[in-house]
Each structure stands twice: as C-alpha cells, then as structure tokens.
Amino acid sequence: MICRKFVLSLIFLIFPLFAFAYEKVPVTINFKGGGELYTFFYCFNEHSDGKKAAEELFNFKHYDNLAASKRKKMMPVPIGTNVGYYTYAIFCYGYEFWLFENKNGYLWGVGAMLDYPLGFSN
Fold first, then answer.
1. Diameter of the chain measured on Cα atoms
2. What is the predicted pLDDT for the residue at 80?
3. What confidence score (pLDDT) does residue 10 get?
4. Do residues 90 and 42 touch, judged by C-beta distance below 8 A?
5. Residue 94 to residue 117: CA distance in whole angstroms
6. Which long-range contacts (CB under 8 A, 24 or more apart) does 22-27 make?
C-alpha cells in the first residue's frame, strides 16, 4: 500500500515537468538611453519545444527558418532570472518576434516580423 502511494505521488510530481515544454520567465530589459521594458521570455532547450511555443503563443509559422538564421550578440543573460538555465528563449513585442540562444553568458538573437501585432488577429 505504501509503495502504491509512493508511485502515484511520484507520477503526479514528475508529470508536470514534462507537460510544459517551456517556461515563462519575467525579464526586465534596460534601454541604452534610459527606461525599462518589463516583459516575458519563453525559455526552452529543444527547437521542437520552441516551434510549438511559437505556434501556440504567437501564431508564428516560420520558426524553422528563423532558427536556421545567423544570430548576433544582443545582450548579457538577464541576471536574477531563470533565462540562463535554458539554451533558447523567444520574446515577442508588437510586430517583432525574437529568438535568442544562450551562449557564453550572452543572448545571441535573430528577429522577424509577425503578420499581426501581439494580441490582434484576423
């Protein structure tokens, strides 16, 4: 009986780890000229998870093309966030969709334009 309870508890504790392929992480981006943008990065480790998140959250269908593009060094990994625990992150603001890769303590990114701004659709 104790073993059965342990196994069931273990299943219910481990299942949520696999149910969500990405983590929504709050991030503050500081602008060079002053000011801050409070937003969220959606972080993941596999491109298949990123593609799924891009389609589900932002209706972005060109993830594979963007993932194959060359990235530029954009900014240091935000300190005090979980972004550094993941290999990739996506970020969307208005018409902009960004894919970041975490390498050597920096986020290397490439962006694309959405068909509709975030929150709007046909």
1. 63
2. 85
3. 45
4. yes
5. 5
6. 22/49, 22/50, 22/52, 22/53, 23/82, 23/86, 25/81, 25/82, 25/83, 25/89, 26/81, 27/78, 27/81, 27/83, 27/91
* Residues 23/43, Cβ–Cβ less than 8 Å: yes
What percent of the chain has pLDDT above 70?
78
Check residue 17 and give its pLDDT: 46
Phi, psi of 40 (to 5 degrees): -130, 140
pLDDT of 3: 56
Distance CA 93, CA 13 (A): 34
Condensed to tens digits (0 to 9), the pLDDT of residues 54-102 reads 999 888 999 999 999 999 999 999 888 999 999 999 999 888 999 999 9
Cα end-to-end span (Å), the chain? 55
Which pair of structure tokens corresponds to residue 109?
A: 């990114």
Q: Using a CB cutoff of 8 Å and minimum separation of 24, what contacts does 28-35 make?
A: 28/78, 29/75, 29/78
